[in-house]
């Protein structure tokens, strides 16, 4: 059952009860201590007054007189008025009173303990007498020889002591009230803060909401990672751990989230997370994956006060990750098909022109010239195909090169192909070969086509038992030395941006070469020359970029 009270209200009530109980306990202890102190002060004052009376020579002299009352009663009344006590009783050692506030009590025995005084000591006690309960002190009056000649009892009634104690109660009540008000205000401010940060929800609701969030977090197909303002990874779901390779990485202490520096992230992805900048469908290459990253700030609710609404606090960033590796692979295959389709279109156009030429020769009766023309045309196309197939035992690669030759011819660029060897590309996926060679040739043809006049592109393919060597050289503008360091970074491009984005082609080439354990280098003083080596068997990943 979910209780309707919020955490703030519960804490306020709990703190208020604690303050009330604390005040009750402390107030009771203070009350008892103040009362005891009042009685102790009254006892010490009675002891002082009694000792002063007992030390007076008048008491000892009157005790030896035939009528001590006649001398001591007026004296006792004067002391009572001057000292502010309720009674002064001077008596014989046998308890017979010589003085008393009430005349009728004179000559009667004293009510109280006298044994300690008869032994020469002093006794302070709270006991009931003729005037009611009182705080009294009894002391002996001795002669010069040390003999007890009389006893002196001085006291105040409990009613008088309570009146004196009641004068202290307002101060105690003021302290208790101050504690109550202070505790209530502290509880109210704390409850107000908790109400703001918990949005008025109770612990059961927060627990239920956390369970929902946990379920959603680990059930979504997208990767989700939460990073605070200090660069610590607060939370990530299973999909994010799989996409980023975080299984078993980072801190094992749940109270100390791992920092981005502790996680095995690619530099580009780590820089994006550390920057905290908004990102929408940004492509990041990490390991063997192509990820689409969306990132935005994690904000709390806006607060309103006397100065108006304040900006919502930023707790960090939230990033979502989508795996686009398969989509990119399909896109590469689609681009391959488009290349082949373009090649067929170009060849169809060329074939129509050549067929028209041969038909015209036949109509003119020049059969031999028509036959020679057809034979030479067939030999040129077949020679390129045979060289590719004999050099690399992969028909798709040969078809790709044939298509690129036709595309280059359409753009006024001459594509020269040189092949050598008769090896295979065992262990290398044809999609990776198409990605590497297709992107390198596209960039080279673009660079050569932009030159004035359009230049040349050279393709060299050599295969043996060790692996496959591919070199692509164009006669376009040379690559700047500074750009050579960043040319394989995703997002870098020397071309103007256009639909679909720029700067992913060479990044995909680098990723594919890394995945296949090959090497990729840039050489050439005139134009650009990219050299790729792919081993026949998969080896540990490495990359060399001078």
Descriptive report:
- The longest helix is centred in the first third of the chain and has 48 residues, at 7-54.
- With 546 residues, the protein is an alpha+beta fold.
- It has 15 helices and 16 strands.
- The chain folds into 3 domains: 8-166, PAS domain (Beta-Lactamase, 2-Layer Sandwich), CATH 3.30.450.20; 225-300 and 313-322, PAS domain (Beta-Lactamase, 2-Layer Sandwich), CATH 3.30.450.20; 385-535, Heat Shock Protein 90, CATH 3.30.565.
- The protein has helices at residues 7-54, 57-63, 68-83, 115-118, 158-166, 169-198, 203-219, 238-244, 267-275, 325-363, 367-391, 395-410, 430-450, 481-484, 505-515; strands spanning 87-91, 123-129, 132-142, 148-157, 223-228, 233-236, 279-286, 289-299, 303-305, 308-310, 314-323, 414-421, 456-463, 467-474, 519-523, 528-535.
- Mean pLDDT is 76; it is low at 490-503 and 538-546.
- A 5-stranded antiparallel beta sheet has the order 6-5-11-8-7, with helices on both faces.
- Helix content is 48%, strand content 21%.
- The protein is rod-shaped.
Keywords:
Heat Shock Protein 90, five-stranded mixed sheet, 15 helices, rod-shaped
Low-confidence spans: pLDDT under 50, at least 5 residues? Answer: 490-503, 538-546
- How much beta, percentage-wise? 15-25%
Classify the secondary structure makeup into a structural class: alpha+beta
Cross-sheet strand order for the largest sheet? 6-5-11-8-7
How would a textbook summarize the main sheet?
5 strands, antiparallel
End-to-end C-alpha gap:
68 Å
**CATH fold group of the largest domain:** Beta-Lactamase
**Which descriptor suits the 3D outline?**
rod-shaped
- What is the architecture of the largest domain at the second tier of CATH? 2-Layer Sandwich
CATH class of the largest domain: Alpha Beta
Number of strands: 16
Helix coverage percent of residues? 40-55%
Average pLDDT for all residues: 76
- Taken together, the total number of domains comes to 3
Radius of gyration: 53 Å
CATH homologous superfamily designation of the largest domain: PAS domain
How many helix segments? 15
